[in-house]
Sequence to fold (289 residues):
Amino acid sequence: MLASMIGVFDSGFGGLTVLAALLKRLPVYDYLYLGDSARAPYGPRSLEVVHSFTREAVEFLFDAGCPLVVLACNTASAQALRTLQQRHMPAHRPDRRVLGVVRPSAEALAGLPPGAIPGVTAPALTKGTVAVLGTKGTVASGSYALELAKLAPGLRLIQQACPLWVPLVEAGELSGPGTEYFLRKDLDPLFAAPDPPSRVLLGCTHYPLLLPVIRPMVPPAVEIIAQGGLVADRLADWLLRHPEMERRLWRNGTRHYATTDDPEWFARQGQAILSTPIAVERVRLKSWP
Ligand code: DGL
Fold:
């Protein structure tokens, strides 16, 4: 019998920031992380391309023994999750589940605790301004605006695409004057406007790696939300409400890592984020007909 792991997918190594939080919050489960580094970044790509890359990645994780897959990647969640859940899964994988990060992050932006039903179990923020920083694809999808309008219609949302932040992280440029210049370019206009945000979501798996530089650039009263912790809390809550899936997951605490590009390079990035050496396997994703 195949293993029964939680699959975690990202376009590259940034999703390890989410995996790190999952391992801390839900350490007993077995995990398989896949980073499609050979085709990253996804942020500037078209919806069709992100959709077909994400479907290939999810199919790989299903075949490798994951009944449950978390799309840690915001760009993939924003552009591919709905179609996967509504068309692909019912037709081809009715017994598997894929969860994304947009809905849980929008709940956190709205001030809703995990598992809350808006208007029933907890009051969402009713007014004010919040902001999402993300890739071009995430912002263009309108997914955050859609979810937030359902959860907290009185909130004003500013969406800011930060197209150079992922390339900076990928190049290892996590600090220094050049990095500060490009971060300021996208952050300063948010706080120069008349109704600045009181809460800012780092809506991309790579951005938490820039947090030490972002924090001093943002007014101290502004709450900055990174996704790892909130995704982990909400997955824990989801598993409690879905015992039929929870029972299927193995509990050996194993971790496996796969990438579509150089495994040694990926292992170095992984070690820096997870603070432990990791063994990484290079894999090929099958194209879906
Ligand atoms: N992982 C992606 C996200 O969270 C960002 C990197 C990319 O553009 O591929 O949106």
Residues 10-12, 14, 40-43, 73-75, 135, 138, 166, 204-206 surround D-glutamic acid (CB under 6 Å). DSSP finds twelve helices and ten strands in the chain. The mean pLDDT is 94. Residues 6-100+229-282 form a domain with the Rossmann fold fold (CATH 3.40.50.1860).
